[in-house]
UniProtKB/TrEMBL annotation, chain B:
Transmembrane segments: 30-51, 92-113, 125-146, 178-201, 222-243, 283-303
UniProt GO cellular component terms: plasma membrane
Protein name from the UniProt record: ABC transporter, permease protein 1 (Cluster 1, maltose/g3p/polyamine/iron)
A GO biological process held by the record: transmembrane transport
Pfam families reported for this sequence: BPD_transp_1
Family to which the UniProt record says this protein belongs: Belongs to the binding-protein-dependent transport system permease family.
Length: 461, 319
């Protein structure tokens, strides 16, 4: 640790020296390490910038890329669309020919950082004067590894409660009965709403969305699946096991997970025949982007929305999203840093949102806002939402923004994939009837901790 | 010079004039030249990576940083990894179920096709077409066909009053579902067996009929022995394919179709190897797994060769 601190100090010193040189008029950095680069918001940049993992496929992407190109001056920007291929990315680093900047899931940042695949961004942040105080804390936590920021976060995905208002009304229920604030009420509503015919499920009462939303249920019950320093798995926490038992019990009350999954898999999730439009699902926690899907494909669906809430009634959401990272060996880290800065700055987000408002207005669609990961941008964009929006959709938007203010996330760690696989496999063993929750989570705990110990040991060497 | 020429003539084997030897040498060089693109491709893209994985299996390697030598540590860890045992068990069960099923169904389809007369061409194409389906699509198709509530398979079972199982979630039924789905691609085996059936001399059937043999006796005493070479080839190829089974199961139970849902019952060895290599970046460990798989397939194939040797007949073979 002492050695690393010394290295960091030397990097900061080098960064300051370079900054001095930049101010003296030689801002164009040419070396491939951030520490040897000169980051300056006023420096003229040129060269090539290959951006991997990002496709400017909509107005939110296109407008921001245009803004970034303007900020980059003579830099030639090339977008390599499609999701980041980890194997290809790591191989390109090993071969010494990585892209200049990559767009990755935030949960990958810890793994990349621990293997030295991406550069710490202290110099970039300081030199380009990026205000990290604007980023949402949960987003920043996901890109901070061993007290160093390795990624510039953007976008935020959160969960809210989404329900069929007609089914609720017919059962004499309201969205408050299914928002998670009272688990007994959720279980009772599930039984009220579920319908079977000839042994087949015809209406799913409540879908607790396992395995993916276990972190949400666990946190609502007071359990953190991973310690704040990212070193200790806490998958055998009794509160987590209790949450898992409850969420699995929701399926058991409807004939078991197999029945629910089989019925869920046979529905048209993204089309007009979605579960809410066809009245075959009572309620579920779901990511906020699904509000847009529903509004697009079934604007008349009888929807009711609320945040997902803890038993204490507090809104809660598990945050995820993307981040910009500069690979080790990037040949133009200065341009990469400027690009990341411009893509995530408030002005760019606002211009992009204005374009979306215009586009939605032209095609008669609804503007539901954009969760940017930048608190200032979020606030300004929220102000652009039409206050006369139909009440049911407005409730969805309100719930989304409220959830956005109450997020948590897993801290960055060097064994993100293994940790995720361990707990998800554990939940799946319960869902498949192979183990009970306690046994499954004890095995998951052991697998996750072994992976974390091994990965941290490599880093601590 | 004359002496030298004489000597060369004298050294030539009797009955083989030097011109022919020289021509053969030229032919050999030409042949090597023509196959050199393949040889180079094989050396660079197959032989070298295979040998290199042998080295990587003795290292700790995460793709980015240099491999560090760990000796037999990866192999020792393999023995202690319960998921390796589970994956091997799943793979063996799948192979034991799928290979005979594919062989029997291919054989009977080929026999039927052989009797189809003028329509044979159409049916041959029809049976082969599914083989052209991308494996990822087959994985997705599995989820649709075997859906516990609305899948075609359970609908069909329902016509006979059978309440079909949960093929895609019940660990007991996951592998049988995958075995049934593997029949989707038996078109190639059918075509190979059909070609073999067409080569069985008609006189043998005529003679058998004269001796009073019915369809079953003709099949067991003429057809199967005469196409045993093709059957053996399919047995070997299908067994190796079963041990390497990956795409369909991965797509259906671990891939994008199920972002977070997975099922241990479908965790085949190749899937676990892939996870270790490309999701967890344990390249050294995955390389050790690959060599273990190679050793297992080699041993199983040698056993098959040994056991089936006395049952396989090659026309013109000297015994």
């Amino acid at each position: 640790m002492t050695t690393r601190t010394a290295v960091n100090r030397s990097k900061i010193a080098a960064g300051i020296a370079c900054l001095g040189m930049a101010l003296a008029g030689c801002a164009q950095g040419t070396d491939d390490e951030a520490a040897d680069s000169s980051f300056d918001p006023n420096a003229r940049l040129d060269g090539q910038l290959t951006v991997t993992g990002f496709g400017a496929t909509d107005e939110i992407g296109r407008v921001r890329v245009e803004e970034a190109k303007k900020a980059l001056g003579n830099v030639s920007v090339q977008l390599v669309e499609g999701e980041l291929d980890i194997q290809q990315f790591l191989s390109s680093i090993a071969a010494g020919d990585p892209p200049e900047i990559v767009y990755a899931d935030r949960n990958q940042i810890g793994t990349f950082a621990s293997r030295g695949a991406i550069l710490p961004l202290s110099d970039c942040i300081e030199g380009e004067e990026i205000d990290t105080g604007l980023f949402r804390e949960s987003a920043l936590d996901q890109v901070t590894f061993d007290e160093e920021i390795y990624g510039i976060p953007e976008f935020n995905v959160v969960q809210i409660t989404q329900a069929n208002a007609n089914l609720l009304e017919e059962a004499g229920l309201s969205v408050e009965d299914v928002n998670g604030s009272d688990w007994q009420a959720v279980a009772a509503a599930n039984q009220e709403l579920a319908r079977t015919e000839g042994g087949d499920l015809t209406v799913i009462g409540y879908d607790s969305k396992l395995p993916e939303f276990l972190p949400l249920w666990a946190k609502a019950n007071g359990a953190d699946m991973l310690s704040a320093d990212g070193r200790t798995a806490q998958l055998d926490d009794p509160a987590l096991i209790e949450a898992l038992e409850f969420a699995v019990g929701i399926y058991d009350d409807q004939g078991g997970f197999s029945k629910v999954k089989a019925f869920r898999d046979s529905t048209d999730f993204f089309g007009e025949g979605n579960q809410f439009a066809t009245g075959t699902l009572g309620a579920m926690p779901m990511e906020q982007w699904y509000v847009n899907v529903l509004n697009d494909v079934s604007p008349d669906a009888p929807m009711a929305f609320d945040t997902f809430r803890t038993p204490e009634g507090e809104p809660l959401a598990f945050a995820s999203g993307s981040a910009w990272a500069i690979p080790k060996g990037s040949k133009n880290p200065e341009a990469a840093c400027r690009f990341a800065k411009t893509m995530t700055m408030t002005e760019s987000w606002v211009k992009a949102a204005e374009a979306r408002v215009r586009d939605r207005g032209n095609d008669g669609g609804l503007f539901t806002g954009v969760l940017t990961g930048n608190t200032e941008a979020d606030e300004q964009i929220r102000g652009m939402i039409d206050p006369t929006t139909e009440e049911k959709w407005n409730a969805g938007i309100e719930a989304t923004y409220e959830a956005n203010d109450h997020t948590f996330s897993f801290p960055a760690n060097p064994a993100g994939e293994e940790f995720e696989a361990a707990w998800q496999d554990g939940v799946n063993r319960v869902l498949n009837g192979q183990q009970d929750p306690e046994e499954a989570m004890q095995q998951a705990q052991q697998e996750a901790q072994e992976a974390l110990d091994q990965a941290w040991a490599e880093w601590d060497k | 010079m004359a002496v030298a020429a004489d000597t060369s003539v004298t050294d030539s084997p009797p009955g083989r004039p030097p011109r022919r030897s020289s021509a053969r040498s030229r032919e050999t060089r030409a042949a090597l030249l023509f196959i050199s693109p393949w040889l180079i491709g094989f050396a660079v893209f197959t032989a070298y990576p295979v040998i290199y994985t042998g080295y990587l299996s003795l290292t700790d390697y995460d793709v980015i940083n240099d491999p560090s030598f760990v000796g037999m540590e990866n192999f020792r860890a393999l023995l202690e990894d319960p998921k390796v045992a589970l994956a091997l068990q799943n793979t063996f069960i799948f192979a034991v179920l799928s290979v005979p099923t594919q062989l029997i169904v291919s054989f009977f389809l080929a026999v039927l096709l052989n009797r189809a007369g003028r329509a044979s061409g159409f049916f041959r194409t029809a049976f082969f077409l599914p083989k052209m389906t991308p494996p990822v699509a087959i994985g997705i198709l599995l989820l649709l066909l075997f859906n516990g509530q609305n899948g075609l398979i359970n609908e069909a079972l329902g016509w006979f009053g059978i309440d079909g199982p949960d093929w895609t979630t019940d660990p007991v039924w996951v592998k049988p579902g995958l075995v049934m789905m593997s029949l989707w691609t038996i078109g190639a085996s059918v075509v190979i067996l059909l070609a073999a059936l067409r080569n069985v001399p008609q006189e043998l059937y005529d003679a058998a009929r004269v001796d009073g043999a019915g369809w079953w006796r003709q099949t067991t005493h003429v057809t199967i022995p005469m196409i045993s070479g093709a059957l053996f080839f399919i047995l070997i190829v299908d067994t190796i394919a079963a041990f390497q089974s990956f795409t369909e199961a991965y797509t259906a139970f671990f891939g994008s179709g199920n972002t977070t849902y997975s099922n241990d019952a479908a965790l085949f060895y190749a899937i676990y190897l892939f996870q270790q290599a490309f999701e967890f970046l344990h390249m050294g460990y995955a390389s050790a797994m690959a060599w273990i798989l190679f050793a297992i397939v080699l041993v199983v194939t040698l056993i098959q060769v040994r056991v089936t040797k006395r049952f396989v007949y090659y026309e013109g073979e000297q015994r």
